[in-house]
Amino acid sequence: MKTERVSRAVLLAGAGAVLAGAVALFATDGLVGPGRDGPRPAPGAAGQAVRAAGAGARASLPELHALIGDREKWLRAHPRDEASWAVLGAAYVERGTREGDPAAFPRAERALRRSLAVYPAAKGNADAQLGLGALANARGDFAAARRWGEAVRERSPRRWEAYAVLVDAYRGLGDHVSAGRAADRLGALRPGATALSRAAQVYRDRGWREDASATAAEAVARADTPAERAACLQRLGDLAWERGEPAEAAARHAAALDLVPRHGPALAGRARALAALGRTEEAVRGYRAALEAQPLPEYALEAGELLQALGRRDEAREQYARLRELAEEEAAHGVNASLVPARFEADHADPEAAVTWLRAEWRRGHRSVEVADALGWALYRAGRAREALPFARRATERGLRSALFSYHRGMIERELGMAGAARRRLSEALRVHPEFSPLFAPRAREALAALGEPPLRAPRGR
């Protein structure tokens, strides 16, 4: 199961942070443009969404839907209220990410650009720019997200939401130094769960596992709403999973689901952990629930690989077909959907296609360890192990400790006849997480067994 990526849950937090900032200004009459006289949303669920977002927290999905309906109704009669257009656009981004609905993203872009048309960026419309930054992150266009975030930071260096956008953008680009600086600034300007969650991810990228877990746990304690707390618990579960602790991961995800039963990342995370614990039928059902709540290609890939490992090949093929459909739908709505399909193609279909897609990502400046690992593995699967090795080294030497990345590098080194290095990497993969994948962990054990014990060296002088 390929879980080492820039998490959708983290990108969702970026959309939520931008919505919180836009709503906070909207709700406190702190506007400086033509829409400053627009009313607050109606009481009830929409008002609850405003109160949650105004506190920097995440609203529930019903509250988010109510806020969207409220702003849509208002804007039909008041089309020049740029603040409401910005709120609506940011809410579309968050809803689209949380529900796995890429069709929401073009609507978000139209709303945000409508806000800029009424009140341009040059005059100070930071909310719409930040919304476009969150949208770019959600679409996987990290270079564009960086441009939007940096533009707001330059003009308004105390807008904390800009740093939330920038942390996610820099991480997607593989610039962890800048991500750390942005996370520090975010924490100074807006202490709380949003900043702590990002700091945890930055620590995780650097390989600081204890710091990441402690900071993520503090984020859980600082969460202000059930939706926010569920997201923080889910992130804590993901960190436990990466440490090779599936029982703890399952417990964290279950706690998140007690708060938000249809939380897609927690459903998928719990399924992942249950598979590692040998509770495979529960895991299969868990993936089905995750795909129903949030239909993402990565969940279909994980479900397919679990089913393939169980020998249920027809069901696995159905999941792989669904992966392709979901990726095509994402691409049709402007989402950069290359990483997960490339991982699928490398392992299950056309490695050369994966190489082509991933080289394009690399040229675009998307040089995270996730892309480096995927490109190295695709090159190996395409029969070009020597070209693959520099990318595998980059993925495993940049801080993040990933069993999957170590497995990939070990297999590449084995192909190149580097038996000692391969033995070390494969052993490391299984030490970090003995059940990192139902499909590939057994292959790692087989490869390690085939390498055998290291040869005994004769003492010097004999």
TrEMBL record:
What are the protein's UniProt keywords? Coiled coil, Repeat, TPR repeat
**A Pfam family:** TPR_19
Coiled-coil regions in this chain?
A: 306-333
Keyword Secreted attached: no
Could you tell me what this protein is called? Tetratricopeptide repeat protein
Q: Which organism is it from?
A: Streptomyces coeruleoprunus
